Amino acid sequence: GDSVTQMEGPVTLSEEAFLTINCTYTATGYPSLFWYVQYPGEGLQLLLKATKADDKGSNKGFEATYRKETTSFHLEKGSVQVSDSAVYFCALRMDSSGSARQLTFGSGTQLTVLP
Amino acid sequence: KAGVTQTPRYLIKTRGQQVTLSCSPISGHRSVSWYQQTPGQGLQFLFEYFSETQRNKGNFPGRFSGRQFSNSRSEMNVSTLELGDSALYLCASSLSAGLSENIQYFGAGTRLSVL
Q: How many CB pairs under 8 A join A and B?
């Protein structure tokens, strides 16, 4: 079945450091890909998405490019802030007609940014 | 406009009891999905409802059930609670169940503790 493999955490960085969180997927078709973020005590918030190969999603300084050839969707940010501390989830969704619409999530990566 | 509202935020139950969780989607959204989040299993899809019909179901026992009302509000029920049902239950709503541009918006979740 479809699956998402995400970089194991936790990740600890200093403020203004460069962030990469790796995400690869396995899917039988062409999924849409997402990054969600979860702050302590809250639900999930959509951070960015890409619906087809070579699309780049971006938001709040975060970026991820849909790479079909490597089945990857790595999350990057050039300069992290303390406020970016959260758990980040990579997810896929198959959008083929008639197929299930649920999100399949990776295991999550805890990011802590130190001042 | 108001986001996805889940009630209650916290619940404590004992083994063998049953519980009902509620989710009010964003106004105008007709699709509601439920997910279970645990430290061991991560985020797992429970079921999806659209127009009062269950469209898809994850790999959970029959003790987990749900329904959707004509106003798109949804409830999920867990009967004969087990210790392993302790989790954060997240509800997500989206405009419809069939569009590739659909985004799922999550509520803050209901934290269920089974003693």
A: 54
Any idea what the Cα angle at residue B33 is, between residues A83 and A22, rounded to 5°? 45
- pLDDT band, residue B100 (cuts 50/70/90): low
Residue B98 has what pLDDT?
A: 59
What lies within 8 Å, CB to CB, of A30 at 6+ separation is A52, A53, A68, A95, A96
Question: What are the backbone angles phi and psi of residue B5, rounded to the nearest 5°?
Answer: -115, 125
| Arithmetic mean of pLDDT, A20-46 | 92
Q: Is B53 on the interface with A (CB under 8 A)?
A: no
Cβ contacts of residue A82 below 8 Å, gap of 6+? A15, A113, A114, A115
**Given phi > 0 = left and psi -120 to 50 = alpha, else beta, which region is A78?**
alpha
* Cβ distance of B42 and A108 shorter than 8 Å: yes
